[in-house]
């Protein structure tokens, strides 16, 4: 793994230690039965009863296990050992079976050999950690059964150009091979965590890059949707205005989230 990914992996190990006791993730609520899934993905993924589902970049598995509570047979994968260790412990604690695999997403076909799934799922805050989308989309296609589908709900790359004030453009829209290097403290879930300062490396991917990577991997696009709001419980919901007032007085809605569903055609 190269130095950027290794840096990010160690950051995610640290963030996992913060997140598992954060209000944002509300692990106790989850243990008591609360789902971590949003109405958007529940509606667009649909009924998962009896289906097999692979969750890419699953963090510590609350979404993965929430799908399992809805009747799916699930596997989750993430490159953070801390996250996967905690995901396995959560699965045991809540008596919901799941397979959790620790792997860089690009290496997952070797780490999770043999399995094919009805659904490959990933969501909110995943793509900016990936240097390249074509090999990622190839991994997605690799794990889909013929007739199965891929689903992603993700922060929109347009709004991801904005800095913390939600108004000033600070980051690129188009992909650059070299990542954006950021120094920050805390995490999105625990912004005031004392003593946690770090470097992170992020890559931008335009909406066209996402769509074309999925098409180049051989999947058939079912839909691409854009939404002018953020789901309630996800990142920075309260920090971002739903839109901006333009100098001419117009209320301009911004695309905060997109979702995409694509099918692997039956042979
Ligand atoms: C924002 S989180 C996932 C979001 C999920 N919706 C949640 O809140 O639980 C992003 C995840 O991607 C993982 N990740 C980042 N780069 C990765 C890579 N190259 N391979 C596998 N996992 C990666 C991180 O460890 C982290 O758990």
CATH architecture: 3-Layer(aba) Sandwich
How would you characterize the largest beta sheet? 7 strands, mixed
CATH topology label: Rossmann fold
**Beta-strand segment tally:** 11
Kindly estimate the percentage of residues that lie in beta strands according to DSSP: 25-35%
Strand arrangement across the biggest beta sheet: 3-2-1-4-5-11-8
Determine the N-to-C terminus distance: 34 Å
Bound molecules: S-adenosylmethionine
Rounded radius of gyration (Å): 18 Å
What is the number of independent domains? 1
* Full CATH superfamily name: Vaccinia Virus protein VP39
Low-pLDDT sequence parts? none
Structural class call reads alpha/beta
Helix content: 25-40%
- Helical element count? 8
CATH class: Alpha Beta
Nearest-integer average pLDDT: 92
* N to C succession of SSEs: HHHEHEHEHEHEEEHEEEE
Approximate shape? globular
List its salient traits.
7-stranded mixed beta sheet, alpha/beta, Rossmann fold, 267 residues, two-stranded antiparallel sheet, binds S-adenosylmethionine, 25% strand, 8 helices
Quick rundown:
With 267 residues, the chain is an alpha/beta fold. The strands form three sheets. A seven-stranded mixed β-sheet has the order 3-2-1-4-5-11-8, with helices on both faces. A two-stranded antiparallel sheet has the order 6-7. A two-stranded antiparallel ribbon has the order 9-10.
Topology:
Elements: H1 3-19, H2 27-31, H3 39-45, E1 52-56, H4 62-69, E2 73-78, H5 81-93, E3 99-102, H6 108-111, E4 117-123, H7 134-142, E5 144-155, E6 180-185, E7 197-202, H8 207-216, E8 220-227, E9 243-245, E10 251-253, E11 257-263
Parallel strand pairs: 1-2, 1-4, 2-3, 4-5
Antiparallel strand pairs: 5-11, 6-7, 8-11, 9-10
Helix pairs in contact: 1-5
The protein binds S-adenosylmethionine.
């Amino acid at each position: 793994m190269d130095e950027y990914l290794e840096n990010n992996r160690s950051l995610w190990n640290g963030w996992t230690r913060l997140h598992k006791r954060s209000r944002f993730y509300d692990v106790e609520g989850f243990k008591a039965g609360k789902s971590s899934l949003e109405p958007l993905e529940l509606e667009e993924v649909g009924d998962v009863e009896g289906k097999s589902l692979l969750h890419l970049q699953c963090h510590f598995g609350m979404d993965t296990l929430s799908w399992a509570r809805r009747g799916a047979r699930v596997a989750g994968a993430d490159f953070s050992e801390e996250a996967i260790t905690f995901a396995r412990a959560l699965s045991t604690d809540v008596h919901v079976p799941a397979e959790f695999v620790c792997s860089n997403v690009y290496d997952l076909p070797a780490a999770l050999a043999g399995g094919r799934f009805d659904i490959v799922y990933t969501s909110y805050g995943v793509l900016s950690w990936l240097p390249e989308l074509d090999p990622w989309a190839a991994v997605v296609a690799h794990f889909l059964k013929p007739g199965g589908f891929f689903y992603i709900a993700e922060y929109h790359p347009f709004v991801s150009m904005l800095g913390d004030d939600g108004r000033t453009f600070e980051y690129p829209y188009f992909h650059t091979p070299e990542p954006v290097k950021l120094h920050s403290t805390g995490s999105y879930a625990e912004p005031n965590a004392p003593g946690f300062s770090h470097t992170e490396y992020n890559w931008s991917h335009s909406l066209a890059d996402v769509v074309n990577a999925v098409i180049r991997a051989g999947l058939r696009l079912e839909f691409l949707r854009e939404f002018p709001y953020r789901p309630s419980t996800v990142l920075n919901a309260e920090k971002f205005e739903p839109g901006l007032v333009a100098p001419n007085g117009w209320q301009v809605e911004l695309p905060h989230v997109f979702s995409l569903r694509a099918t692997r055609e039956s042979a």
